[in-house]
Design brief:
Radius of gyration: 23 Å
CATH class of one domain: Mainly Alpha
Number of strands: 10
CATH topology of one domain: Hypothetical protein af1432
Structural class: alpha+beta
CATH superfamily of one domain: Hypothetical protein af1432
Strand order of the largest sheet: 4-5-8-9
Number of helices: 20
CATH architecture of one domain: Orthogonal Bundle
Largest sheet: 4 strands, mixed
Shape: globular
Helix content: 40-55%
Length: 419
């Protein structure tokens, strides 16, 4: 992305040249100041889709571009809601723009794949809240309302729903953006039309009845993107290998082995950092803010040549895209089948009972395109009634898509004995 001044070098109301939406305006000077903060600039160094580029080579866009795009969609949503007669003050506008802009600031490198291994018992949403609180301190309380909206503690519930719900600006942007960069055209949605159809009823976000077909496509697109992109079996294989690389490295470091790593990465390898530490210790947040994809990839490149056979083998395979074979099934794999694969790999690679866990993975993938148990998408009918999308839709797929789909997988390295 290229930042250009609209008027002069001192003007902070910049424009961003975005390949998905065209020119995006930074609407408030303080938003520009927050974007310039090192916490936020870190998002330039975190890929939006982790290891998805191993399957779709163009999927190298960052979380920085995603949140800028989501902010752009939020400005359009605010304008639509105001035009339909609902008050959003300038302070509320800034609050909701900050909330969407910073909703992903707590993501670690490679996002969900490492969420529970870098730190324990704390989610990226909670870390985002800690970052917002710290930024608000640095900006003299200017982000206090953003934090209240982000935490869903503000009386105008629709503002939080624009940030986090089944019809939020986060999903609107990532479906369009991830579709654009991956080349998977099935994910493209009509975000402009959907935003034009949003309204507020009884303090909650609703969609006008005439937008039903656009939102049906939105739900179907999300389902397709999950199976074709986010949970593509090769991506899953790479992500599980990455998880186990970091897990092995942390185990070795905590046993006293000296491994290469940046100071920020080694801090999280050496320590089991708790939720309380993130919440109460600014130094922990500062160290996390120094951690990005480059720390992980730089370390893995070096770990290929370490003395530990497990870490070396896994790192070498990931760097060279020699990924594990992955089998997908609609039913769980039997214990006998898993045991047979484990024994085969154990003998082929001469692994111990402890080491085999780093080479054979069995788990379940869940895809719930529309969750009827989580803040449903409500339609505002012409007669003023509000009903759930699944009830109003004449598309039988919507009811089907509200039921979670589970697929089971078994992942293991290809060796000469199982080719």
């Amino acid at each position: 992305m290229q930042l250009d001044s609209k008027v002069n070098i001192n003007n902070k109301k910049k424009i961003v040249n975005d390949p998905v939406y065209g020119f995006i305006t930074i609407p408030h000077e303080i938003i520009f100041d927050v974007i310039q903060h090192p916490y936020f600039q870190r998002l330039r160094r975190i890929k939006q889709l982790g290891l998805t580029h191993l399957v779709y080579p163009g999927a190298l866009h960052t979380r920085f571009s995603h949140v800028i795009g989501a902010m752009h969609l939020m400005t359009k949503a605010v304008a639509t809601i105001r035009r339909k007669g609902h008050e959003i003050t300038e302070e509320e506008e800034k609050g909701v723009l900050f909330a969407i802009l910073l909703h992903d600031i707590g993501h670690g490198p490679f996002s969900h794949a490492l969420e529970h291994d870098i730190a324990s018992g704390v989610s990226h949403e909670e870390i985002s809240a800690y970052f917002i609180a710290q930024l608000s301190k640095e900006f003299n309380g200017e982000l206090d309302l953003a934090l209240t909206i982000f935490a869903n503690n503000y009386h105008k519930k629709f503002l939080h729903q624009l940030v986090s719900s089944q019809l939020d600006m986060d999903r609107m942007d990532y479906l369009n953006r991830d579709s654009f960069y991956s080349g998977v055209s099935e994910g493209k949605i009509g975000s402009d039309r959907i935003i034009e159809m949003i309204d507020v009823k009884d303090g909650n976000l609703v969609l006008e009845e005439k937008g039903i077909y656009s939102i049906e496509k939105f739900i179907v697109s999300r389902r397709l993107m999950y199976w074709q992109v986010y949970m593509h079996k090769t991506v899953v294989s790479g992500e599980y290998m990455l998880i186990h690389i970091l897990r092995r490295a942390k185990e070795l470091v905590q046993q006293g082995t000296r491994l290469f790593g940046s100071p920020a990465l080694l801090y999280f390898m050496e320590n089991n950092v708790s939720k309380e530490a993130f919440k109460n210790e600014k130094a922990v947040l500062e160290k996390f803010a120094l951690l990005d994809d480059f720390d992980i990839l730089g370390a893995i490149k070096v770990w290929q040549f370490c003395d530990d056979k497990v870490l070396s083998e896994l790192s070498k395979r990931l760097v060279n895209r020699d990924l594990f074979k992955i089998e997908i099934s609609k039913v769980p794999f039997s214990e006998d089948r898993i045991a047979k694969v484990r024994n085969n790999i154990k003998q082929s690679l001469q692994l111990s009972d402890n080491e085999i866990d780093y080479f054979v993975y069995s788990d379940v993938l869940r895809n719930n395109a529309y969750n009827e148990d989580r803040e449903n998408i409500n339609l505002l009918m012409k007669n003023g009634d509000v009903i759930d999308l699944a009830e109003a839709s004449d598309n039988l797929n919507i009811s089907a898509l509200s039921k979670p789909v589970e697929k089971y997988f078994l992942c293991y390295p290809v060796t000469s004995s199982n080719v």
